[in-house]
Specification:
Strand content: 15-25%
Distance between the termini: 95 Å
Strand order of the largest sheet: 1-2-4-5-6-7
Radius of gyration: 24 Å
Number of domains: 2
Helix content: 10-25%
Length: 348
C-alpha cells in the first residue's frame, strides 16, 4: 500500500508528465473563415465593395479555365516586402490572394490563398449563393456541378488537394503573381489577353512602392520578357508556361518536356522550342506505333502530342489534367498555326 508521501510524489510526477506532453502539442493553425465576406476581401459594412487595401492585378498570360471571366486581388500587409532574391518570390506572412470565377455573367466561386504563418498556408474555395450576395466555404473535397458550361459539361469547384497539386510543387506559389506575369513589357499577342487597368499592380508598382527586396536593380528598365525570334513564339510559350509550367518544370516529379516551362526558365524562347522539338513522349498517340509520338511534330503539327492532349478530355490523355472540362480551341488553333509557321520559317 502506498504511503501518503509516495502517493503525492506519484501525483506530482503524473502532473509534470502531463504538462510536458501538453507543451509538445502544436498550437492549432488558423483555417479558412466560413464566408467569403469574413476573409477581408470586402470593405466593412459595404456589401460587395472591395476593400481598398486589396489591390487588383492581371497576369499577362492567363490560365485557361473553360472561358471563365476572372478577377484577382492581392493584400500585402503594411510594410511587408517580397523577397525577390531568386526567380521564385518568397511572399510575406499575411499575404492574401483572391480569384473570382464568373460564367455567363454569374459569379460561381472565389478561391482564397492566405499565408497565415511562416509555415502554414490556407487554401480555400467559396461557392457563391444564387443572388450573388455572399459565398460560403466549399467542402474540402470540392463541389461538382457548380455551373453548366456545355451539354454534359459542368464546372467543378476544386478540392483543397487539387489546389495544392498546382500551387505546391515544392514551395507554395501564387500562380500568376511573379516577375514575368506582372512585367510591364506586356505581350500584346498573349492568348486570352486581359485588359490592364491603371489601378492594377504591376512589377513597376511593386518596385516603386519598395515592396521587392534584393531584386535586381534594372527590373523596371529591363523587365522580364520571353525573348524569341517571333512574336508568335513569345505568346505560345507564355501560354504553355501558365497552363503547363506548374507541373512540367525542373522542380516537379514529372518528366520534363525537354525543357522546363516554368516562368523563370522560358525567357530564352527559341532555345526552349528547340529542346521540345522532335522529343519523343512516353504517352502514345492513339493509333500511332509505339515510340513514334513526338511532343512537337513539325512534319504533322496536328499529330503533335502537345496538341492532341490539349484537345482531348479523356482522363488518361487530357492536358492540363485539372481545372478544365472544355478544350481551349482558340489556343489549339494558335499553337497549330505556330508549329506550321515556325518550323517552315514563316513565323512573323
Amino acid at each position: 500500500m502506498l504511503t501518503r508521501l509516495g502517493a503525492g510524489a506519484i501525483v506530482l510526477l503524473a502532473l509534470t508528465i502531463s504538462l510536458r506532453a501538453a507543451t509538445l502539442v502544436p498550437p492549432a493553425q488558423p483555417g479558412a473563415p466560413p464566408r467569403l465576406s469574413d476573409t477581408g476581401l470586402y470593405a466593412a459594412g459595404q456589401s460587395g465593395v472591395i476593400d481598398a487595401r486589396n489591390r487588383p492585378f492581371s497576369p499577362q498570360y492567363p490560365l485557361w479555365s473553360d472561358g471563365a471571366i476572372k478577377r484577382r486581388w492581392v493584400y500585402l500587409p503594411p510594410g511587408a516586402t517580397i523577397d525577390a532574391t531568386g526567380s521564385e518570390w518568397d511572399l510575406p506572412v499575411g499575404v492574401r490572394f483572391w480569384k473570382e470565377f464568373s460564367f455567363s455573367g454569374r459569379k460561381i466561386e472565389t478561391r482564397f490563398l492566405w499565408r497565415a504563418s511562416a509555415d502554414h498556408w490556407v487554401f480555400a474555395s467559396y461557392a457563391w449563393n444564387g443572388d450573388g450576395t455572399d459565398a460560403q466555404l466549399a467542402s474540402t473535397d470540392g463541389v461538382p456541378g457548380a455551373a453548366d458550361l456545355a451539354p454534359n459539361k459542368q464546372h467543378t469547384i476544386p478540392s483543397v488537394s487539387d489546389c495544392r497539386a498546382c500551387h505546391q510543387s515544392r514551395g507554395v506559389e501564387a500562380l500568376g503573381f511573379n516577375a514575368l506575369q506582372l512585367s510591364t513589357d506586356r505581350d500584346a499577342g498573349a492568348i486570352h489577353a486581359e485588359s490592364l487597368t491603371q489601378d492594377m499592380i504591376t512589377l513597376q508598382t511593386l518596385v516603386g512602392e519598395g515592396r521587392l527586396r534584393r531584386a535586381r536593380p534594372d527590373l523596371v528598365t529591363d523587365p522580364p520578357r520571353i525573348r524569341a525570334s517571333s512574336a508568335a513564339t513569345r505568346s505560345v510559350l507564355g501560354y504553355l508556361s501558365a497552363n503547363c509550367g506548374t507541373c512540367h518544370n525542373r522542380d516537379s516529379d514529372l518528366a520534363l518536356l525537354g525543357a522546363s516551362l516554368k516562368h523563370s526558365d522560358i525567357l530564352d524562347g527559341d532555345a526552349v522550342v528547340q529542346a521540345m522539338r522532335g522529343r519523343r513522349t512516353l504517352w502514345q498517340r492513339p493509333g500511332a506505333p509505339d515510340g513514334t509520338t513526338l511532343l512537337i511534330d513539325s512534319s504533322s503539327p496536328t499529330s503533335s502530342a502537345l496538341l492532341v492532349r490539349m484537345h482531348s478530355r479523356r482522363p488518361s490523355s487530357q492536358m492540363p489534367p485539372l481545372g478544365t472540362v472544355l478544350a481551349d480551341d482558340v489556343a489549339i488553333d494558335r499553337i497549330a498555326r505556330w508549329i506550321r509557321d515556325y518550323f517552315s520559317g514563316n513565323s512573323p
